[in-house]
Amino acid sequence: MLQFLFHRNSRFPRCLEGVGTLLALITLYQSFHPLMLLIVLLCLFICGCDWYPWYPPADRGLGIQVHFRKARIPAAYILVITTWAYLSGLTYPVMVPALVGLLVVTTVNGILIYFHWQDKDPLPINYFSANKYLGLTQK
Hints:
By secondary structure, the chain is mostly helical. The protein is 73% helix and 0% strand.
């Protein structure tokens, strides 16, 4: 059950993400609120980090892409809960903690992107953590 609700490749968080985005856009269209707009933009940034192809096709799903995929799960839940709470009339008691949580995830994503751009090492992704170096010594 937990894997269905929280696994990075599960369809349920993706559906929540779609429902949350749709509800948030409808909410923004009906009554504009700057904090809601910021929450939607932060969620789109988190999703955009996952959508961007950071590595060649053979290495997809490794390295920082694992973090970006996992970061979408709390963002999806935060977006749905915040939009529901906003529609129920609870604006600031829910939006401020949601904004803080999304800012933490966004900051971590930004730091990982910065380190990814600074990395000039020619070794392949997960060279040591996936024990790829053992294949070279066994031949």
